[in-house]
Specification:
Elements (H helix, E strand, L loop, with lengths): L2 H12 L3 H8 L3 H8 L7 H11 L3 H40 L1 H8 L1 H27 L5 H8 L6 H38 L1
C-alpha cells in the first residue's frame, strides 16, 4: 500500500525518527515501523493524528491507498460477475439438455432434480441481473468491456443504451423459441 511510503516520506521531511513520531501520535515505535512496512494499517484516530502532525489532509495521506483499494474492488467485482455468469450459462445449458433424460431414467425423481437445478439457475440469473443493474451494463458490448476492465466512451455508451429495448425483445423471443423447441423435442421423445 502507499500509506507506508507516505508516512515514511512525511516523517523524513519533518526530520522525525520513528520514536519521535510515535510519541506525537501516542503509539509505539514498533507500530510506526509496522505502518511504514505495510504490515498493518493505522486506525482512524491515528490517521487523524498523522494528518495533524504532517499538516496534510487525511485524503492526501491515503490517496494512493484509496485508488488501489478501488481498483481491487473493481477487479473483484469483475471476477465475481464473470464467475456467476459462467455458472449461470452452464446451469442454463444443463436445464435445456437434462429434463428428458432425467424424466426418462429417473421418473418423478428426475423431475424433482431438474426443478431444483432450475431453481438454482434462477437464483444465479437474479445475481447476474443485479450485478448488471449495479454496474449499468446490459448489452453484450457493455458486458465485454466491463469484464475486460474497460469502459465505453460516452458516445458508445449512448448507442448501447439505445439498443437495450430491442435486445430485451429479441432475448425474450429467443428464450421463447428455445423453450418451444425443447418442449416439442420432449413431447416427441416421450411419444417414441
Amino acid at each position: 500500500m502507499e500509506l507506508g511510503k507516505q508516512i515514511k516520506k512525511y516523517r523524513g521531511e519533518l526530520g522525525l525518527s520513528q520514536e519521535m513520531l510515535a510519541e506525537k501520535i501516542y503509539v509505539s515505535r514498533q507500530t510506526v515501523s509496522n505502518w511504514e512496512n505495510d504490515k498493518n494499517y493505522p486506525d482512524i484516530n491515528s490517521l487523524l493524528r498523522l494528518s495533524e502532525v504532517f499538516q496534510v489532509s487525511v485524503d492526501i495521506l491515503i490517496k494512493g491507498d484509496v485508488e488501489k483499494m478501488e481498483e481491487e474492488i473493481r477487479q473483484e467485482d469483475r471476477q465475481q460477475f464473470e464467475r456467476d455468469s459462467n455458472i449461470f450459462a452452464a446451469l442454463m445449458l444443463a436445464d435445456l439438455l437434462t429434463p428428458v433424460p432425467l424424466l426418462h431414467y429417473l421418473g418423478n425423481m428426475g423431475i424433482v432434480m431438474w426443478a431444483a437445478m432450475f431453481g438454482v439457475t434462477g437464483w444465479f440469473a437474479l445475481r447476474v441481473e443485479q450485478k448488471k443493474k449495479a454496474f449499468d451494463i446490459q448489452t453484450y458490448k457493455e458486458i465485454v468491456a466491463f469484464t475486460q476492465g474497460e469502459g465505453l466512451d460516452e458516445i458508445a455508451k449512448a448507442k448501447e443504451e439505445g439498443k437495450r429495448p430491442y435486445q430485451k425483445i429479441l432475448m425474450a423471443a429467443a428464450v421463447g423459441l428455445i423453450t418451444l423447441a425443447v418442449s416439442v423435442l420432449m413431447i416427441w421423445i416421450l411419444r417414441v
